[in-house]
Structure formats: structure tokens, C-alpha cells
Amino acid sequence: MRPRSLIAITAALAAGALTLTACGSRDDKGGSDDKENTTVVIGVDAPLTGQNSATGLGIQYGVQIAVDDANKKKTVPGVTFKVKALDDKAIPATGQQNATALVANKDVLGVVGPLNSGVATQMQQVFDTANLVEISPSNTAPELTQGKDWQTKKSRPYKSYFRTATTDALQGGFAAQYAHDTLKKKKVYVVDDKQTYGAGLAKLFTSSFKKLGGKIAGTDHVNTGDKDFSTLVTKVKNSGADMLYYGGQYDESQILTKQLKDAGAKIPLFGGDGMFSDTYIKTAGKTSEGDLSTSVGVPVDTIPAAKEFIAAYKAKKYPGDYGTYGGYSYDAATAIIKAVGEVVKDGKVPDDARQQIVDQVQKVKFEGIAGPVAFDEYGDTTNKQLTVYQVKDGKWKAVKSGTYDAG
């Protein structure tokens, strides 16, 4: 998903010395020209190659368009924004290394990402220790904002972490409700990829489906990178399940659904937002017809405010899938830009800019291109909208949007 963004630099003026601060750089003259502006970098961490890269690239370029818009409109006088995108390859340890690198770059005043909840678990403390704001457009594991005991006692572990995507506590139940009440499925086989996101989502779907009176035909696990699911397919067929629910990313599910259908099991595969990508349909082909996924928010192409964003993404021929998290990435970057505008005045970056920006993001409230943007006391988005999509005639079609009361 992506070419590299330019690393942030500040041009040295021939007539004046460069004044440095703890978190940013500026020239003494100021002015509207980029060369005379303070450079503020927004970091991006996502899988830009390999696993999950289609959605990772959508994140990178969603941020890039937000930055381009801010620079064009001179949203923050005296500031030129740039993007520094790092590839975590969907590997937690790499994400942690990237977090350390972004913290070390004094010009980075905010970060958008990561894509994967498992990667986020290794990045949060690094950013929090440095008081560097992090906004994920896609993490959905509840414990990231509400603590490991979130089901019994919510406690926010990191004040610098926010997200524009709603959580699996709602997504899992929303999917279960649709499967049971709308599709009238009674017996579901549940599989996950053993990762933080996938396993958590599968668990929440299972719990909600059983509460509704549905039965679990069986459970199993796969490894990320697996390509041969013949043994699993046999188990699913023999179980008599009328649906397969998958907790994980499209990389495995797009292969699993094809092998399932080719083996004669004509049942739909239902997954979460990690599966909601055009790449899933391209790889699975006709066997994806009828499959379903949930995703956060409402379809970005139905929101009038997102019209210019979509046009810009297509015009620049950016790689990746903008429809999954592109809008949420744009809004996450915009939240950081607005916070910077409250802290950096006339290009002057205070020594405690990073901490001030964390505080300002907590207060942010605006109408984003993917819906309203604001954060609750845990750093979670207040936008709880979700959508069920189904593959119809080779495309993801929204079949239901709404909210879910987890009770």
C-alpha cells in the first residue's frame, strides 16, 4: 500500500540562524512561504507492504490528503505540515521500533495509526511516555482504551491514545444480531487468526450470538500467512453450520472462503472490518458472492463531506483502499492539525507542545468527512455507527447501518 512520504526538513535561511525547540523547528522570519514556515510532521504507522497493505496504504494516503488540504488552506498560520510514513508490516515489534523512531523525531507532533490492534499494544506506552498523541483510524480491540478488565471495570491505560473507529464490543454484537435476526442463521462455525483483533472479535461475536439463541457449530484457529485450509474446510462442512464467522484480516479469509466454496460448502463467510477491502473480492473472485463483513461508520461514499476526499484520492491515483479507513485517517489527521492550531501560534512551538496537543485532542469536536469527530473519557470515538456490507455482483454493498447497544 504505498510509496514513502518525505521526511520532514526545515530549510535553513541564508540570512538567519535556525531556532530550534523541543518539538519543532521554525525560522525567525515566519511568513506564509513553506521555506519560512515551521515544519510540523504527522507520523503514520501502518502495514505498507505485505499483510494488510491495501488497508494500510489507505491510511497513509488518507493522512496525506488531510495534510495537503491543511497546507493549501493555510489552516495553521506559520506551519507547514508534512507526513512521515513508516511500514510496520503488521508486526508488533516493528511497530514498537517505529514508535520509538517517531518519538525521536522532534518535529513529529502527532501520529496516525496503527492499523492492527496487536501492533497498537506495543506502541501505546512508547507514545504515552513521550506525551505524543496517537490516533488510530482502525483499532477496535476494547482493551486499548478501556483496559484489560474492560468488561467488568473500565480504566483508561494511556491518555495519549485515541481512535476514530468504534470498538469490537459493539461490532461483534452488531454482526451477531444481523446474522441471527436478519439472516436467520442458527448454527455458526467460528474461526479466528489468534491475533488480538481477530480473536477478540470472534469471542465477542460468539458470546452475542449465543445470547440471541444461536448455536456454535464449532471453533478453530488459523495462523496468519496460512494458505491451505483443507482440514478446516472439512470440519466446517461436517459441522452442518449455515455460516462461517471469521475473526481476522482479509489476507486469510479471502483464501478460506474460496476453498470453502470450491469444496461444496455453499455457506457465507462473515467477518469484521479487517475483511472489508476490495482486495478480498478481487482475490476470492466469484466465490466471495454473498459473503459479509461489518465495518465502522457508514459508507464513506454516501457522506457528502467526503466527496472532495474521494475525488482527490482517485485523481492522484493513490494505491490502497480508501473506502475502509481512508476517511477515518483523514479525520484523525485533521484532529491533530486542529490541536496543533491551538498550540502552535505564529509558528512558535512551545517546549511542552506534545503534551498540550494531547490535551487539545481530548477536547476536539468537529464534523469530519466520515462523521462527527469527538472523543469520550477513554479516548474512544463518540461516533458509534456501524455498517454491514455484503458482496453483491462483485462489489461490497451496504445492507444495514445503525448502532448496537452492548447492554
Automatic annotation (TrEMBL):
Known InterPro entries for this protein? Leu-bd, Peripla_BP_I
**Domain Leucine-binding protein: where?**
39-395
* Signal peptide (UniProt feature, chain positions): 1-22
Lineage top rank: taxon: Bacteria
Q: Which residues form a coiled coil?
A: none
Per its UniProt record, what Pfam families does this chain match? Answer: Peripla_BP_6
Q: Which UniProt keywords apply?
A: Signal
PANTHER family membership: AMINO ACID BINDING PROTEIN, LEU/ILE/VAL-BINDING ABC TRANSPORTER SUBUNIT
Recorded family membership: Belongs to the leucine-binding protein family.
What is the protein name stated in its UniProt record? Binding protein
